[in-house]
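Example 495.
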Amino acid sequence: MKEPIYRWNFQALIAVVLCVVLMPIPPAGAVSSGSATPITIPSELSELWQQLQHSYLYLFHNSPRWHYRSDRINEMQDFLKKARDHCQNSYKDRIHQADSQLKETQQQLRQETGKISDAERHEIHCRIQQLRKTRTEDQVLADHAIPIAYENKNAKLELIEQWPQDVKQIDAEIANGSYIHRRWGDVKDIGFRVIASGQQDDIKVGQQAVQQMKQSGIMPPVVKDPTVVNYVDHIAQTVAAHSDLHVPLHVTVLNSKEINAFSLPGGYLFVERGLLEAADDEAELAGVMGHEIGHVVARHGHKLMERATIAGIFYQAAEVAAMILTGGIMGIGTYYALQYGFYGLGLVLNLKLLGVSREFELQADQLGIQYAWNSGYDPTGFIRFFDKMATHVGYVNGVGWFMDHPPFYTRMVDAMREIMFLPKKPRYIVTTTAFEQMKQALKKVTAKAEENEKNKPSLYGPEQGCATTQPANYKPGEPIEKICPILGVENVKPR
Ligand SMILES: [Zn+2]
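Predicted structure in complex with zinc ion:
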């Protein structure tokens, strides 16, 4: 901390490192003619392909009864690689085309300056603006959304191949009682055991970090609607009361469309509006909140601060700041900055740092599942939420985050294993009328936020009054096949 001027950066960054549940791509327009040329799946793979469309939970339950030959699995692996490369290359081609069109248009602007009318100049500005926008969106797809969508498919294939063996092992551990001796297997002592001592020592650091986050201007506004705020607080406090948390939990709902939640050391939980919008039931929310509380309980923030170097964080911050200042073609950092404000940018800055927390994510997953279960919730809520995020292109875009995280297969299998080890309860809460009431109240909050956003001048489009803005190639929530069609299978089957 030699450089006090960067202090807030450090703290704020650590804050977001603690937990980024998921980063979405912002909503955009309808599918345009921009999708890739279709590729055809070999007919012998089409049945296995259909299986990959199922949810993780479905695969966990059903794959032990399937017996796919290993050459079929290998063939599918090859096909997935081919399909991913094809999809990615189509988008890279589009980026190259946009680059040369941009160059041409900018050249034209330079050459004809002084000769053209204001109206013509306006038209050229609009064209440049549109090209930049499309290019950035395509880059997000090529660099982030496409690889993640295919990593998710690969994880499901791995599950079909390996889970039947894994589940036998798990059953054996349950039968011989050895599962009790797993890390934090003492679930009957939740609240009375020690996960990491000294939680209260983090309160001061957390308070400071919250303060610095507020001062830095990266924090989105706070949601004030009492129905939403009280509901979120109630669920979080319920989960906290059934966890190993020994410090007071402070819950804040942020008015941002990011599908995200994060926690600061010492019990500061931030839940973003986008996360509430994306959740389909209360058990999903409880799973995510349990995960965040798990980070606080295990004092991951404290541990990360010991490991992260301020120089490393500052280097990344400078890099992204430079991208913004130089303008022109936008990188992913700028993209988030413009879409979400600096808070989103903060997330982008931390992607590399998140790499150090793979193990912490798995730990928080395990604790979170235990806490949701101990609060009476269906513990599979966490898996369902994760699955939804990873499967649909609209949710996973831009998530370099996913890359630095534990491999999907490990994460999902570890989560499922923990659920199987937990003592069964006669019934679990999946959702409540309070959840539905929160969703209703949230609609109004969202509508108002969207209205405000419309009136805000956008850095994304400094040239005002352009005739038409081309919609992006995807809609949030759509599967990857929508932008890269596969022939020979039923595409985009409802799930
Ligand atoms: Zn996390």
